[in-house]
Amino acid sequence: MRLCRFGNGRLGVISGDVLRDVTAALDALPSFRYPLPAGDVLTDHLGSLSPRISALARDAPALAVADVSLLSPIANPGKVIAAPVNYQKHLAEVRASAELHHHNQIAVIQTAGLFLKATSSLVGAGEGIALRKLDRRTDHEIELACVIGKRGSSISRDQALDHVAGYCIGLDITIRGPEERSLRKSVDTYTVLGPWLVTADEIPDPGALELRLSVNGDVRQHSSTADLILGVAELIEYASSFYTLFPGDVILTGTPEGVGPIHPGDTITACIDTIGTMHVAVRAADDER
């Protein structure tokens, strides 16, 4: 199943180039009073809602995907967890360029660990990227995004994929500079998730997916998740050894080599096999309407 959010927080099912509006399924979600539960409520109840979503999709009016503005498929992740330098060639690329490392020590991921991005940086493909600090270099990074579907702590590698709700394409947008990663990568709109969530049953092996990214038609990144240093299961094991993972938490698995600068007016096209393609417009934050 491919689930998207669009318009004013509506829920849709994707089939090819067609979207079926199944927002009525959200009426079955439990109501809560403050304090709200940890995690994303829809992701937490996706298993029980799936039959209702499928039933509604059969008779729902069809919309063209191209005619809607896609939001992040996950509305309320508790954490956005990111894996730095998790492709060997990207590690070498960063170490070789002062424009990328800014004299920071670049350790292997097993030493560097993971980092967190602000959830306020999250947008969908239709919302675009609003660049700040235009006097500094800002780069694109395509990544496989894993969405947690079941709460867990100290999850073993063998059981890790049982905790996955699904996968998306992720863009980890990065201002280059000497500051900590979390600061430079947590600007508003600097985490793009989309174009939709593909449920885990459609991707039994997340370690065999081809990734491609182009800017204005110029291919910049082309690799495979087979080249990840730590795969999805290992990242879940690693992250959950430090903190509890909740439904809706997002793990950005790292980017391959080929990162490069983006500028206002650019269009990023990001593709991951089995998931799909998303087109993301880049603008200056000062151009906000």
Walk me through the structure.
- The chain is of the alpha+beta class.
- It folds into two domains: 2-70, no CATH class; 80-287, Fumarylacetoacetate hydrolase, domain 2.
- Helix content is 17%, strand content 33%.
- The protein contains seven helices and 20 strands.
- It has helices spanning 41-44, 46-59, 88-96, 98-101, 109-112, 181-184, 232-240; strands at 2-6, 10-15, 18-21, 62-64, 70-71, 80-82, 115-117, 122-123, 129-131, 138-140, 142-148, 164-172, 174-175, 191-199, 210-215, 218-224, 250-252, 260-261, 267-272, 276-284.
- Strands 1, 2, 3, 4, 5, 6, 7, 8, 11, 12, 14 and 17 form a twelve-stranded mixed β-sheet that branches. A five-stranded mixed β-sheet has the order 9-20-19-15-16, with no helix packed on it. A three-stranded antiparallel β-sheet has the order 13-10-18, with no helix packed on it.
- A hairpin with a 3-residue loop joins strand 1 and strand 2.
- The longest helix is centred in the N-terminal third of the chain and has 14 residues, at 46-59.
- The radius of gyration is 18 Å and the shape is globular.
- It starts with a strand and ends in a 5-residue tail after the last strand.
- The model has no long low-confidence stretch (mean pLDDT 94).
